[in-house]
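Extended Data, record SET domain-containing protein
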Amino acid sequence: MTIILVSQIRVNAMAVVRMKSTDFHCLPDQFGKFSNIGDALTCSVDQVPVGQAIYTAGSLFNHSCQPNIHAYFLSHTLFIRATEHVAAGHPLELSYGPQVGQWACEDRLNFLEDKYSFRCQCIGCSQLNLSDLVLKAFHCVNPNCNGVVLDHCLDNSELNKLKNFPGVPRMQVLDPFLKVDELKNVAHLALELTNNSFNVQSGSCLNCGSNCDLEASDKARRKALICMKRLQDAIVSKEISTTILSDASRALGVLRSILHGYNKHIAEAEDNLAQAFSLVGDFRSARDHCKASIKILEMLYGSDHIAVGHELIKLSTIQLSLGDPSAADTINRLGLIFLRYYGSHADFIFPYLQTLKREANNLTQEGRVT
């Protein structure tokens, strides 16, 4: 009996979490009048596990790396909310942790097999999708090509998906959610040729077939990420020197030159620089980097994903500090995203949303007056 109970807890238990973020209650009524709120402007929101629990209904939902429902907690009470229209008879699926856009396919499979003892076969893991191709990919050496170059980590998890697609016209079998046009732009050659006529190799561009020196590119990537780590440490200590900031900016340039434009390392670097520039009071540069990060996250997750919503919070507060009237549109957009995931509980879980909404309303009223 003990063994059965332990197994059930391991497989069926849900992690009870609380949201942890920088507190916005101290923000002023007029963002633009302050120059020392950079730490709040680019706050991060994390889910902090506080326990494990088995729910009679909630623990029965199957996992998907592309979930259509979202689970959240108020104290120990579990709430489940659909994040998209679900047709009658279609299963409701939530994420047990990893999602498409967050982790590469092979990493998701290993995590789920280790923690929950099953091999994921959801649509996100069984079909080709843009996020898994570009998440950790290098850029083609051909400057006129937007193709992805796979490293050894991606080859194993994506090779079968490429080869299992039927012959021309392949793209007709893809779900629209999988960003068909973008897939064509980054992997045209792999998708158009038959299984036997195209052999995916590490370092080969999936779009034009050019070869990339993975060893040199990976060495440059690692060196650039070391610079970004120094910037992250400086952000934590709030001691950002001109040297660290300029080194990180150059490191971002290196990452942009060797990694695919939708690689998550670039999104993270853009986000780090947005936070750093906010801390030193350069909100215009912070805004540019934050927008660049959002553009990548939209490609990895989709435009209405909660990960994009959290980044929009950062962008909106930077815009408010600049007196940028477009902050109203940003706040309205992020409000809809949080409503989609948390419903009427959004303002309670994230109190600073109410402050942002008031600022958006003020901007709208000022626009009508002028």
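Summary. Residues 1-8, 22-42, 166-174 have pLDDT under 50 and may be disordered.
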